[in-house]
């Protein structure tokens, strides 16, 4: 919901940094993988109860996630790069609920399972919409220039980052926040399915 609104603010500085990174020969795929490693390191810190370290690593991971696209725009965008980026995002998103479940299974496991299920359903609706959009020649740059069609929703990347930050700041509230966020993920998927029903023939 917020991605399109913050793009005009974050894209210009990211693009400037991306051009500088590209000049020294670091590729977009390398940045993507670095972001994934940082995110997984943050998830590992969560399992050990090191929430301040996890917060820093998660934020660095998401910075890399924004920077890889800027580097690609400064050099050359590729289909594999887009594929690697979305795959790394989904691996990172899954790692955070799993980490909280491993950190405190009795308190967090059920809420983590619900949250992971909501991510799975929401991700399926997102990728399915992107496939059909490509088939029908639809395009959008509302969420920036992407290799896939990014359909909007109640919860997008910005909201997910804010959610993860809050989890690191108040980890004892993981169950309550996860039930709420997971419910909103399911609502996002339902609304996207309704949008697909309007856009695509049946």
Which tags fit this structure?
202 residues; mainly alpha; 7 helices
Walk me through this protein's architecture.
- This protein is an all-alpha fold.
- Helices cover 79% and strands 0% of the residues.
- Helix 1 packs across helix 3, helix 2 runs parallel beside helix 4 and helix 3 runs antiparallel to helix 6.
- The longest helix is centred in the middle third of the chain and has 31 residues.
H/E element string? HHHHHHH
- Spatial gap, N to C terminus: 27 Å
Overall pLDDT level: 90
Task: Please give the radius of gyration in angstroms.
Answer: 17 Å
Q: List the total number of helices.
A: 7
Poorly predicted parts: none
Structural class: mainly alpha
Shape: globular
What is the percent of helical residues?
over 70%
Strand content: under 5%
Biggest beta sheet summary: none
Instruction: Say how many strands there are.
Output: 0
């Amino acid at each position: 919901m917020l991605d399109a609104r913050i793009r005009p603010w974050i894209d210009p500085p990211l693009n400037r940094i991306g051009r500088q990174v590209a000049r020294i020969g670091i590729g977009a795929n390398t940045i993507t993988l670095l972001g994934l490693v940082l995110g997984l390191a943050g998830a590992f810190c969560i399992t050990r109860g090191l929430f301040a370290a996890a917060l820093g690593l998660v934020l660095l991971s998401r910075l890399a996630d924004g920077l890889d696209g800027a580097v690609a725009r400064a050099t050359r965008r590729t289909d594999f790069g887009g594929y690697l980026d979305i795959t790394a995002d989904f691996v990172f998103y899954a790692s955070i609920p799993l980490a909280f479940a491993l950190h405190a299974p009795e308190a967090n496991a059920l809420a983590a399972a619900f949250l992971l299920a909501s991510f799975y359903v929401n991700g399926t609706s997102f990728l399915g919409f992107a496939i059909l959009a490509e088939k029908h020649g639809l395009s959008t740059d509302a969420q920036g220039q992407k290799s896939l069609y990014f359909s909007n929703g109640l919860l997008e990347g910005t909201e997910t980052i804010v959610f993860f930050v809050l989890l690191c700041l108040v980890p004892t509230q993981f169950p309550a926040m996860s039930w709420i966020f997971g419910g909103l993920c399911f609502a996002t998927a339902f609304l996207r399915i309704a949008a697909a029903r309007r856009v695509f023939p049946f």
